[in-house]
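Hi there. Long-time user, first ticket. I'm pasting a complex I've been working with (about 741 residues overall). I'd like to know whether the download I got is complete or cut off, because the file seemed smaller than I expected. Thanks.
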Amino acid sequence: MVTLTARRSRSKPPTGTPSRHVDPTRRQQAVAAWVLALPFLALFVVFTAGPVIASLAMGFTDLRSTDIRDPFAVEFVGLTNYTDLLADPLFRKVTFNTTLYLVLGVPLTMAAAMAVAVGLNRVQRLKGFFRVGFYLPVVTSIVAVSVVWKFLLRDEGGLINTVIGWFGVDGPGWLDSTTTALPTLVVMAAWRNFGALMVIFLAALQTVPRELLEAAETDGATPWARFRHITLPMLRPVMLFGAVITSIGYLQFFEEAFVMTKGGPLDSTRSITFFTFDQWGFGNYGLASAAAYLLFIAIMLLTWLQFRLLREKD
Amino acid sequence: MRPTRTAIGLVALTTASLVLTACGRDESGAGAAGQSEEISGGEAEGTIEVWAMGTEGEVLQDFSADFEEANPDATVEVTAVPWESAHDKLAGAIASGETPDVSLIGTTWMGEFAETGGLMPTPEGLVDESEFFPGAWESTEVGGTSYGVPWYVETRVLYYRTDLAKQAGWDQAPATWDELKQFAEDMESGAGAEYGLNLQPGQTGSWQTVLPFGWSNGATLTNEEGTEYTIDSPEMTEALDYYTSYFDAGLSPTRLLDPGELESGFAKGQYGAFISGPWHTGLVEDAGVKPDQYTVAPLPGPESAPGNSFVGGGDLAVFEDSDNAESAWKYVQWLAEPEAQQAFYDEVGDLPAVQSAWDSGELAEDEQLQVFGQQLNSAESPPAVPTWEQVAAEIDSLVEQAAKGGLPADEAVDEMQSKASRIGTGL
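Hi, the file is complete. Here it is re-exported in full:
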């Protein structure tokens, strides 16, 4: 009993006169916390923070693959890499393409996810079957999916052109034309990605209060009005989350184009990430780092914008 | 307190100050050093670590038993490296200084790795340069200094369906550009081929088919010293114009074929002919083409065959950071001996880079192989400069624009030149 009171009196100094010395128990806890966090911190600094900062630094130098034996013996070139990129017609083209992926892909993916989620929310039987079915493409390897779609989309003998051929439509070589290649990739990417959002939307739909919907129905609101004025506003935070992660995904569009079109025809499907990948392969480490940081800035700006537009208005 | 943020700040500061204070490069690039000193005679000793890719990597260990027998104090340790990751692994090894002693290096990587200073110049008198195919030897020379020894080679020739050619009225291979064009037209009109000659309409690697037409026509990619690009010549324009005329005339498809499409189409008689390397003999036979249904021929030149072709393959290089360089070079020397070259052909089918290895055995008797051997005498390699891959990608992209985008050949060639000059040689 004595020890207990003693400890209590130590841990609670009289109010008004804050103790100068740190509580030894808390200090021990702090030390323990740091010791426990150290392995992670060390890994984080060496493998995450270090490379991130190194690549930022690289973007201001003319480092090339031929400098790897002596990476500090390079010239500091200031913003030259950034200005070179902005002046490069190919970089402008891939920026335009990436913007197209974004503005076509995000609405399409979100609309598809929402439509299927609303539909599935009503379905009573085989719910699990449909959920798994729509989610399956998300967990399948992008490369495998892309290879299969490449065959489906073949000009001659591809399943898609064969099927629309039955209705007398002569399908084009979807991936061989500069006008259809990019939209085709967007459709495929939307098909592959909407499952993840669908699961999230489906969960959010369950949280919409049933009483609210029933009250609106009693007041004579049409199904569309109920969806538009009750369900959608209630889903706003989830949609913000969906928009942000989907946008980040489309801004980094790469694998589908890499496997299916190799960036062609005539660079019409090359994205910023693809461009960065190429530059890295050519050994232009400085320029590639700068391109990666430009993309990073774009992602930050877009995310900030979406938070501004979609956050709760209260 | 925000320790993480402080730590990051510190790292950033250190990195930035290191970069700022230590910057400035010295101007001595590859080739400044000259060849290494002659190695001493005698047997090799110690452990020789070797990296090799693909099939070569799988069989080289057993193949080296003869070398170990002749040099009892030496042990060869071969590590098989997949081609896909080989470039990054080599770059990483050079950056860290933890290299093997010897490695197989793709010919188009020589410029880059030599320029890093990671490769050791070939010692004086190690091998006789004139024993190798000239194009293959050129691939080892960066800035006038040789950084390795050619090991095996491959070159591109014309493949065509002999039965279809006969139907179209051709008993022998076309020898000139005009004949080749006529041949492709006849393949379509006389033998029912959908496309007379499949040429790659730009995109990755198309330069390997396009540039030989330029070389055949007398065009060069760089000046004698290899310091400046000289792509924009009338000869190159004429060659590209000739190349793209196949797409304009519908003699070649303007879309990129899927893997396997060419071989199955060749078997079905859809494509009458194409240009490719030695690996395609196996591929077309797998696709169902009987050996008597097709043959290979040297590439036609503007006036007579053979025209020039592309030579690729693999070189053997020894690293600056090798701690057993002397013995490593002896091992390289052994692999470049005609007997070892011939034996290695028997083992994996790699075409020998040493000319005399072609004088006997299967290589001397097989007619198809002799076509490759003949073509290798007039085959060139691209400039061995560190920036070649990037210049090649620009050429590929402009070939694509000329082949299907309607860009006139002279403008495409001008653009190739200005893009290449802007990129520079990187030496």
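A couple of notes from our side: Chain A has a mean pLDDT of 86. The interface with chain B takes residues 41, 45, 49-50, 53-54, 56-57, 60-61, 64-76, 150-151, 154-155, 173, 176, 262, 264-267, 278, 281-284 of chain A (CB under 8 Å).
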